[in-house]
Each structure stands twice: as C-alpha cells, then as structure tokens.
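**User:**
My hope is that you can spare some time for a protein that puzzles me. This is the protein in question:
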Amino acid sequence: MSPMNAPAPVQGSKVYASAGAALSGLLHDGMSVMSGGFGLCGIPERLIEALRDAGVKGLTVISNNAGTDELGLGLLLRTHQIRKMVCSYVGENREFERQYLAGELEIEFTPQGTLAERIRAGGAGIYGFYTRTGAGTRVAEGKETRQVAGTTYVLETGLIADLAIVKAWRGDTEGNLVYRKTARNFNPVMATASRHTVAEVEELVEVGRLGADQIHTPGIFVQRIVQGQGYRKPIEQRTVRKRGNVAVVA
C-alpha cells in the first residue's frame, strides 16, 4: 500500500486513530527505522508493537539500544524482524546476544555520542564529521582517518532512515511535540533525520495549546501522529539507597 492509499486520519491531516493506521503505507521489507528512546525511557511502545504486528522483515534499526527481552525493540527481535542494529548498547537483552553469537543478527556498534551526532548530522544535511572518539580502536576500522595537529580523527557519516518512530509527552494535531525530562533523549534528533516521521504521544491537544517556547520538535518534521494508551512506564533496573548511602540494585 502506498502512502497515498493509507487510511485517512481521524482529524486534520496528521492524526491517526491507531498506531497501525499511522504506519500504514510506510512499511516495506528491508527498510531502515530509527526508534527513539534510551533503555525503556521515551520509547515509542505502541508504534513498535504496530511494527511487530505488520510483520515487516529485514529491518535495519537505528536506536541507542534494543530494549529488553520482553519490552521495546526486544519484541521485534523475538519475531526475527530485525536484520541489523546500529546502536551503542545492548546489555539488557539476552535474545540480542543469542542472535548475534548465532550469526542471525548484524551489529554496527557506535559510541553513544557519535551515534547521536550521526543522527543529528543526517537531519541537518551534513554528509559527515571528524571525531576523536574511536580513533585507534576497532570503531575506526575501515573508516577514513585524518591527522590534525598531531591528533587522529575518524570520519563518521550522517544517518538518514526511511522511517523514524518517536515518543513524546504531549503533541498537537499539527505534530508539534514536547518531550518530558530524560524521555527527550534521542527522539528530537531522530524526528529530523528520516523520510517519514511518525510520533506517538501520551496527550494530544489542539493547535495553540502548546507554548511556542515549549516545543522541542516543530510539526514540520512530523508527518503523522497518534495518541497512545496504556503506558506502564517500566524501569529496567531499579536502584534504591539504603542507610549509609550505599546504593544497591533491586
């Protein structure tokens, strides 16, 4: 189904009734997808579930990490819909480890700050940039390097995806988005670095309800928006403090 034949939005030109409807016409096997969030914070839960239900396969997913075995992008790993991950951290997902060691999953590890800048560069129309991060390590293997004032820099290229799925706290019907605290993480830069951006929000309001100075992602970057429901807000590792200021992981 082409985007022109996708189900009509509920109201205006961008609001869709469900995550599945918001993705309709945008998906195909072998596509690249940016998925916002950090750990389980600020991840587009309903849109990830819709990707799973759509059954699209051979995905290259660009995300800080791959969720956990039961949540986030871990859902797509369980159904073997991801062919390659471009990410910076995978430590919370045993299925990720199993698939990689079995040769079922390709990984492109990228230092976290470099990953964020590669996405930002893609959204800004910048081909690439030189960074000291990774110089002299396996990160630099196969990449162009340059010596400047005695220091080695590695050329990293910008990233652009076919689709970005992002999660915001509040959004209006024109796609203007506001993220809450640390859920801001990778979402704003990913919204700028894709051919189509679909946002899910916890609260959807009419245009004019968001203060202009509060908006983190302008609606010009967002093509479709959906209001999600039933968020549990899980915590990957709960850290509490005992007497004596000794931190433990529960």
About this structure: Confidence is low (pLDDT under 50) at residues 1-8. The chain is about 20% helix and 30% strand. The first strand starts at residue 15 and ends at 16.
